[in-house]
Amino acid sequence: MTIVPPGGVVGILGGGQLGRMLALSAARLGLDVHVFAPEADCPASRVSAKCWTAPYDDEVALLEFANSCDVITFEFENIPAKSLEAIADAGKQVFPRPSALAVSQDRLIEKQFLQSINVPPVSFEAIDDASQIAKALDRLGGKGILKLRREGYDGKGQARIETGCDADAVFAQLGGRECLLEAFIAFDKEISVLVARGQDGATAIYEPPCNDHGGGILRQSTVPSGMSSAILAKAEQLGLKLAQALDYVGILALELFVMPDGTLYANEFAPRVHNSGHWTDDACYVSQFEQHIRAVCGWPLGPTMRHSDVVMDNLLGDRDIASWNQRAAAGEAVRIYAKRGGGEGRKLGHANRMSPKG
What we know:
This protein has 358 residues and is α+β, with helices and mostly antiparallel strands.
């Protein structure tokens, strides 16, 4: 087991808002952070001790960065798994493990893996060519969501599709690349379970929030979720099963659809800290960000209980972010990501609105 004491260096691949919040949490534990990202002046770089600006496939720069760190983690899943493998092959500890990242990067492999460990996903079909779509739709009930197998997030890289539509046009819209067709299901709610797992296999779970989306982007997370204790317990069991099967280290998020009868289906998992866990920053004694740093550094996991009820609002685009002053004046805990430039739908911050725990 690798234990990184205060004064040690945590390396983070990726320089966005998640890396920024991880770096801030690491600093509170007396740890320095080095960031590696292809973008100059990224949000994480401005709160870190040192930053490397280079492409993820620049192996010379990557190994120089890795050799400056005691342990390496990452903040988003579109980093090439080969980059992590190169670091691991050089003898550096990487958490979560590159194998977990590789599973999450291909939606077909991800769904097959979930099936293999009895974490049931929505029914799906692999699509390599537009000619396969019609028969796949028939098998899936006539309606579905066509998603790129690789890349795509926050509603990007996917399209709704149904029997009788122009399959060639939809497939072309997604670049004619390998896809996954998921059955369209009438779910009641969406929740997510965040599992922390340490290098020693110890686990801790945050209470699952209820998540509301708009345009494929998370808008709001609410805790308590309003779900029954039986549903929450089942969600936690599925999250634990996934973390153990991946031999995971760090924070893992599993998104789940809740059907009207209480059945749970896995949507996808994220091998990193997660947008639906931002509420933990203000409503818990130990946030998901600190918990992730604790786990990858070999520290004991912290408590996951919350001290408040909370609603987390994503601040998307210039209009939402302009409300920061009013939200702060109303007593909300506001987090601004310090991104250069705005844009419609871009995640620029979030706000946690807390109330006494019910």
